[in-house]
């Protein structure tokens, strides 16, 4: 009986760690994508802030806009190159979780994963 309780707690902890990883990863992606990738929403704010604080000329402002857009594009390229590594790690983690689930738990897990993937696709579409 003790063995079953310990096994249940271990599975619960694994699922909890997985869910926390998803939540933290989602938040990290949100903030990383918006800040580091220079989400288009921040672009005008950055340009206007620097123009005001540094007293940029119109020519400097135009150059700054070009630099920020070029940097954002480079960050996006790097992300796209690394994306297969993230996708593989996600797949591996999900496969390991599937291996510990009962047949009754698997459909619920698949539905949970489907919703996560749908949310991720929606966020990616909003970025582009």
Question: What is the structure about, briefly put?
Answer:
With 128 residues, the protein is mostly helical. The protein has four helices and no strands.
Name a few traits of the molecule:
single chain; 128 residues; mainly alpha
Distance between the termini: 53 Å
Q: Percent range for helical residues?
A: over 70%
Assembly state: single chain
Radius of gyration: 21 Å
Spans of at least 5 consecutive residues with low confidence: 35-39
> Which structural class is indicated by helix and strand composition?
mainly alpha
Strand segment count: 0
Secondary-structure element sequence? HHHH
Strand content: under 5%
Overall average residue pLDDT: 83
Largest sheet: none
Please state the overall shape, judged from the principal axes of the Cα atoms: elongated
Number of distinct helices: 4
């Amino acid at each position: 009986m003790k063995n079953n309780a310990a096994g249940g707690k271990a599975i619960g902890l694994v699922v909890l760690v997985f869910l926390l990883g998803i939540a933290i990863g989602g938040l990290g992606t949100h903030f990383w994508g918006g800040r580091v990738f220079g989400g288009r929403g921040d672009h005008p704010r950055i340009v206007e802030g620097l123009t005001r604080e540094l007293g940029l000329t119109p020519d400097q402002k135009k150059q700054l806009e070009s630099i920020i857009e070029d940097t954002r594009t480079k960050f996006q390229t790097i992300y796209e190159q690394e994306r297969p590594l993230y996708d593989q790690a996600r797949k591996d983690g999900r496969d390991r979780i599937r291996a510990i689930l009962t047949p009754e738990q698997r459909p619920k897990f698949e539905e949970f994963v489907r919703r996560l993937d749908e949310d991720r696709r929606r966020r990616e579409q909003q970025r582009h």
